[in-house]
Each structure stands twice: as structure tokens, then as C-alpha cells.
Design a protein that fits this description.
Layout (H helix, E strand, L loop, with lengths): L7 H12 L7 H14 L11 E8 L3 H4 L2 H6 L6 H11 L4 E11 L2 E6 L2 E7 L12 H20 L1 H11 L7 E4 H7 L1 H8 L4 H15 L12 H14 L12 H8 L15 H10 L8 E3 L7 E7 L4 E6 L6 H13 L5 E2 L2 H9 L3 E5 L20 E4 L5 H7 L1 E2 L10
Parallel strand pairs: 8-9, 10-11
Antiparallel strand pairs: 1-2, 2-3, 3-4, 5-10, 5-12, 6-7, 7-8
Helix pairs in contact: 2-6, 6-7, 8-9, 10-14, 10-15, 11-12, 11-14
């Protein structure tokens, strides 16, 4: 078979086509993928379900391999050649592009991932009637890339691992950066914290951290009604200037309806001053709603004020540690504290460190969504905020970050 010569933009196009329909229906293609499985089987399993991983790189080629300027201009994607050049360099900033290729097995099903996204799958026992299949070219290319890579690994696995550790793009690695160092690269990010919280606010936050680390039974509230809860919410809304002049006459429950998630499970229909109504609702609500999401947002960017019933009374727990909204959370906490409302701030210590700029931001590969990535970092680092390495000022970012070792491959003994 003659050597396939293509470049990363075309490779990415073929990957995109394959990932739109991952089930492999062509018998010849299945045999080629089984050849890949056989090639890579000499690598030690790196995870559950027979997971094995290798890295390979594909040249980006020249700008003509990326696309035709005249077509981009005609389609109004760009307005000038300089914009076209900038787009190419943004999409393919290095002379080669790295790919993370993973294979795994579950029962009789084989899965092939490119950059953590499922690209091919098939069951070895399935019959495959003849039908049109569109990803044979990509499979041929992958066979070649895997064979070339495995040849290097077989000859000198140490040298291969050293090459990966030295040359793998930083946007494919795990790392961490002190927030103050991040602020030194992007000062406007630090100012967004510092302008909104003064020294007194930080001192009060320190008291809140100590309060939240103590015995939670010290923060019990004896009486809870829907009306009380909405008033606690209002304190947070007012503290963050959500309540403008035109809204000054709105009641606490009306403000909750305006800013909360909306799926309140009937909370806003309760008699505001009735303890019995609230207790009955709390014990018998069906679930599925978000009554405690007092500031709506995304999956990780909303702010919640939970109410929990204990043997000794009610607990309020304020939660919202997303970097984009943590200042709002702190302002709410300060307002509750000043109004002598007992409560616990969840992840209080981590939030304090974030506000002071002494926490670490976790850097995750660009193929990973920077949410809920704590399991990839040492627990002692207490990292709760994550990001991908961006294109802007990436050299400065790389210099200031601490990078975790890239895990190499090992051969089966």
C-alpha cells in the first residue's frame, strides 16, 4: 500500500465525517481496525475496559492545505487575506498537530476514540451486510499512522516517551497555575475581583470561612418558612445590585421568581408565614425541580441556597464557586453574615483562596471540557476552577504554569 500523504486539515475533515456516524458497517474496514487492535495490543493496558493510548502527530501542511482564500472570502468567512492567515494560524498554531488515539473494549464491543471523541465502534460478532461506508479512507490512514507509531515504540519505547514528553503541545497537557500568576498575564481578570470586593469584605469572608469550618449545629435556624427563605434570597439579590430602582417595590418572592431557576416545585405557592406549610412541602416535594437554585445559570455557574432539615433545626448552605460568579456568592455570604443569618458557605476555604488569588487553576487538555475535573489533580491542591490553555499569550502562560508529567506507554513484558 502506498504511503498516504495528507495534512491535518483534511485529517480533521475525515474525523468529523466518521464521528457523525460511528458504527462501522463495512467488513473490510472492520478487519483493518482489528489490525490496529493487534498492533496496539503490545502496549500495557492504561485503564479500565482494556484501554490503550498512543500519541501521533500529523503535519499541518501549508495554508493551501487549510483552504482556498477566495472561497473563504466569497463566503464572507474572512474579509482579507490577513484574516485568513490569522484563522489558519489560530486553528493550526504549530507545524504539526497532535492526536490522542485510544482504543477500548467492553464485552464484544470495540471502541476507537480520536481526541477523546468516539470515532469508530463495532461488535466483533455482528454480521455486516454489504452497504456503503464513507470512512474507509480515514481507517486506511489510521492503520498507517498506528503502524508507524508502533514501529517507533517497538524499536525504542523510552525514546518515544521522551519525544512525547518534550514535544507534546502544551494545550494537550495537564498543569496548574497560581491565580496571581494568571492575573499577572491577564490583569483585567484580577481587577474584576479586586474592584468588587474591598479589604473589609475580605476580612468578613475570613470570618465566614471560620464559621463554615466549625460545628454546623452552631448554625441551626429554629424556624423556617417560605417567606423567611425568600427574604434570605433577597439579601443576596440586593447585595449584588440585582434590584434596580424600578424593582424596589417588588416583594422577596417576586424577586425570587425573577432571578431563580423557575422550577420551584410549588415553593412560591406556599403560605409565606406558615412553618407547617414549609415543613410539609419540604418532606413531600416530589423532586426533579431546582427550588434552591436562587440565581439561574449553567450546570456549574448557578448559585444555590440550600435548606436542609436536621434533628436540631434548619441549615442554610450557600453554594457557588464558579470563577465567573464567585464574587456574587461572596457578596451574598457577606450580606447574610451582616444580617446575622446563620449559614454555611460550601467550599469556603477554596473560595477564600480564589478571591485572594492564592489558589491554583487547573489546566486541562483542549479536548476536555473544563468542568468537574478535580479527579485529574492531586487532592491536596484543592483545585475547583479549570481552564483550557488558550491561544492568547500562550507562551507566557506556559512559562508560568507548572506542568504535570505526561504518562508514557509501557510494553507488555
Amino acid at each position: 500500500m502506498s504511503k498516504i500523504i495528507h495534512h491535518a486539515p483534511y485529517f480533521d475533515h475525515l474525523i468529523h465525517v466518521a464521528q457523525s456516524d460511528t458504527r462501522v458497517t463495512d467488513a473490510a474496514c472492520v478487519q483493518k481496525l482489528l489490525l490496529i487492535i493487534n498492533e496496539i495490543s503490545i502496549i500495557k493496558v492504561q485503564g479500565e475496559d482494556e484501554l490503550r493510548r498512543i500519541w501521533f502527530e500529523v503535519p499541518r501542511g501549508n495554508i493551501e492545505d487549510y483552504g482556498q482564500y477566495e472561497e473563504f472570502l466569497e463566503d464572507e468567512v474572512v474579509g482579507s487575506y490577513d484574516e485568513f492567515l490569522e484563522m489558519w494560524e489560530y486553528t493550526y498554531p504549530e507545524k504539526t498537530k497532535w492526536y490522542d488515539f485510544t482504543v477500548t473494549t467492553y464485552r464484544n464491543e470495540l471502541y476507537f476514540f480520536v481526541d477523546s471523541t468516539l470515532t469508530f465502534q463495532f461488535n466483533v460478532s455482528d454480521e455486516r451486510p454489504e452497504q456503503v461506508y464513507y470512512s474507509g479512507e480515514l481507517i486506511d490512514w489510521l492503520v498507517e499512522l498506528v503502524q508507524e507509531t508502533m514501529s517507533r515504540i517497538k524499536v525504542d519505547v523510552v525514546k518515544y516517551n521522551e519525544h512525547i514528553k518534550k514535544h507534546l503541545s502544551y494545550d494537550r497537557r495537564f498543569g496548574k497555575m497560581l491565580r496571581k500568576d494568571y492575573w499577572s498575564v491577564f490583569p483585567e481578570e484580577g481587577l474584576s475581583f479586586q474592584k468588587r470586593l474591598n479589604e473589609e469584605d475580605v476580612l468578613i469572608l475570613e470570618s465566614i470561612v471560620r464559621q463554615s469550618a466549625g460545628d454546623e449545629m452552631d448554625q441551626v435556624i429554629n424556624v423556617m418558612t417560605a417567606g423567611n427563605f425568600f427574604e434570605y434570597c433577597k439579601m443576596g439579590y440586593v447585595a449584588n445590585d440585582y434590584v434596580k430602582a424600578e424593582n424596589n417595590k417588588l416583594s422577596a418572592v417576586e424577586l425570587y421568581k425573577r432571578f431563580a431557576d423557575g422550577r420551584d416545585e410549588g415553593l412560591t405557592a406556599l403560605t409565606l408565614g406558615s412553618e407547617a406549610d414549609f415543613l410539609d412541602w419540604y418532606r413531600h416535594k416530589k423532586g426533579g425541580g431546582h427550588p434552591w437554585e436562587i440565581c439561574r445559570g449553567g450546570n456549574s455557574t448557578h448559585i444555590s441556597l440550600f435548606v436542609q432539615l436536621t434533628e436540631k433545626g434548619w441549615l442554610l448552605v450557600l453554594e457557588g464557586s464558579s470563577c465567573s460568579r464567585v464574587v456574587e456568592t461572596v457578596k451574598m455570604a457577606i450580606s447574610l453574615y451582616k444580617n446575622q443569618v446563620p449559614f454555611i458557605l460550601n467550599k469556603a476555604s477554596e473560595i477564600e483562596r480564589m478571591i485572594k488569588g492564592i489558589d491554583y487553576i487547573g489546566i486541562v487538555p483542549k479536548t476536555m471540557v473544563p468542568r468537574y475535573c478535580g479527579s485529574h489533580f492531586p487532592s491536596e491542591d484543592r483545585i475547583i476552577d479549570f481552564m483550557n490553555l488558550g491561544f492568547e499569550k500562550s507562551d507566557e502562560m506556559c512559562d508560568k504554569a507548572t506542568w504535570f508529567p505526561v504518562k508514557g506507554v509501557e510494553l507488555v513484558s
